Amino acid sequence: MKIRLYYPAMMRIEKVQSGGEIDIPDHATIDVLLQKLALSREHVRFILVYVNGEKRGLSHRLHHNDVLKLYLPVGGG
User: Which CATH number fits domain 2-71: 3.10.20.30, 3.40.50.720, 1.10.260.40, 3.90.1150.10?
Assistant: First the structure.
C-alpha cells in the first residue's frame, strides 16, 4: 500500500523525499514504517507522528493513501 510522507528537511530521510509516496506492507504500523526509513531508535522516541491530521502512536496501523507527517520538536531559549 502507498502512503504520502512529509517531514522537515533536518531529518534527511534518503528513501523518500518529503511529500513523496512510499510503499509499505498492508496495514503496517508507524513503527514498521520508521524502521523501513532507517531512523535511529534513539531519535524515534522524540518524533511526533500525525496521520491524516491526528496525532498517533507507533502502534497505529496505517492504511492505503494515509498522509503521514513527522515532526521533530525543537526547543531552546
Answer: 3.10.20.30
